Amino acid sequence: MTASNDAVSRRLLLLTGALGALAALLVGIAEFAMQFSPAGGYEAADYGYFAQVPGWRLSAGHFLGVLAAPLYLAGYLHIFLAMRPAPPWLRISVLLLGSYGFVIGAVWLGSRVYLGLIVHTQTAAMNGDLLTALLASAAAHNEPLIQVVRAAIGAASLLFVGAVLSGRTLYPRWIAAFSPIALLAAVFASYLLVPAIGIYLLPTAMNIAHFAFFVLSLAVLARTSG
């Protein structure tokens, strides 16, 4: 590969990482706007915390998140490039799993606003029985999607960790400890162990995990590929 090709490859590596970090930041802001409640209660089956979210925040978060979510695909292209020279099947598997997960995640995020709107209407209604049934039905179509996202990102992270520990990527081995799924687990742990902090992190857990990962990746690769 010529020096010119090396420079282009490095620019693409850093650009895709920056776009991934931007996606995580913007979608994180969007999810925080849509879901943050000072009282917490994110684990409640009735989504009561949405009643504490003003309508303007639901709308702003919805549009910002849906429009920014596709940038996540650039972030997983960054990981694909940074995993060189690991075997192509391994790199492609991580790229496809991560991309698939975030396509499903965009669908999940795009329908999240309707749960909030139903809760707002339910709170204002004289008789909320029909809305309670509607909310349960909407949740049954929404919640399984985030489980698919977590499974896909978990599988991609396991493959990523294996590749990094093999020493056949651009990453140092220690970065395996900071895979997206490990950082996601840390965010959930913060909600259980340090709720005063976790209450702010959990509404946008997946995005915080990926923002931290992409920023760390950029910091490491900017030095090692320079």
Structure in words:
It is a single chain. This protein has helices at 3-35, 55-68, 72-82, 88-124, 129-165, 180-193, 195-201, 205-224. The protein is mainly alpha-helical and 226 residues long. It has one domain (3-224). Helix 6 packs across helix 8 (205-224). The longest helix is centred in the middle third of the chain and has 37 residues, at 88-124.
Which key terms come to mind for this protein?
mainly alpha, 226 residues
Can you summarize this structure?
The protein is mainly α and about 230 residues long. Helices cover about 75% and strands about 0% of the residues. The longest helix is centred in the middle third of the chain and has 37 residues, at about 90-125.
**How many domain modules?**
1
What's the gyration radius in Å?
19 Å
Q: Give the low-pLDDT segments.
A: none
Distance between the termini: 15 Å
Major sheet summary line: none
Structural class: mainly alpha
Succession of helices and strands: HHHHHHHH
Fraction of residues in helices?
A: over 70%
Task: Indicate the overall shape.
Answer: elongated
Proportion of strand residues: under 5%
What is the count of DSSP helices, taking H or I runs of 4+ residues?
8
